[in-house]
Fold:
Amino acid sequence: MSFKTLIVETSDGVTLVRLNRPEALNALNSELLAELGQVLDAATIDAAVRCLVITGSEKAFAAGADIKEMSDKSYAEMFAADYFTAAARKLEQFRKPVIAAVSGFALGGGCELAMMCDFIIASETAKFGQPEINLGVMPGLGGTQRLTRFVGKSKAMEMALTGRMMDAAEAERSGLVSRVVPTDKLIDEALAAARKIAGQSPLAVLMNKELVQTAYETTLTAGVAIERRLFHSLFAFEDQKEGMAAFVEKRKPDFKGR
Ligand code: DAK
Structure:
């Protein structure tokens, strides 16, 4: 598949998706989100793809939704198109892990896209923000909800109300990103993490992702109970036997996804 707004390469079980609208600092428009949806659909049915990495350029992961595309739309047009909902749902419901590798600006919809991924690895130059207030609007892809869960009410409220950006060090301190790496190592580090995931049992990977997501959706007691039941169910898979046998035999496991 070839795309107008994305550069997509797959190797070693990992699909690397580069947002590619340099003229607009990778601002998210309808075309880019439709293409991202196609990548997710293809990755869903391709067993060889075990993990995705989404990245942008060194200057910008994505500077938000495309303001020029949106500015003249009417309420009727936004509502009828259910603007951005289809692609957002695809990412929210995508079962394989997705890593955001963020360098430069991740603003508005760009910050929200990064937060929809399973974890964020940031370069030292990363800047996160929800500056929609400066445009007379507000986040629309989950920013008020996810940012608040990740960094807490005080920081999320300040960022949403003032548009203040958070740098990489603050984002790491606040729990928004898993770690910060040198800018020139960002893609290598993200791909190394993705390849590590791609080498694990794909079934155990899906269950781990589902359970960590469940922590955001349910009570502690219910979440722990679901975890225990799914843990028991892993013993129905050959991969559990292989993983534990490989440990005992001091060799590398060969997971088959069965
Ligand atoms: N949209 C369109 N074009 C953008 C853009 C954006 N978000 N951000 C940057 N660009 C374009 C600039 O217009 C400029 O284009 P030319 O003038 O060269 O044609 C080019 O990218 C380079 O940008 P700058 O010249 O501004 O570059 P600087 O280094 O000086 O500044 C900056 C970088 C990131 C600080 C600045 O570009 C900036 O403030 N950008 C806007 C950031 C922003 O406000 N982001 C939030 C956008 S609103 C929805 C869900 C979600 C959303 C909407 C709907 N639904 C579910 C309905 C999300 C909304 C948003 O994200």
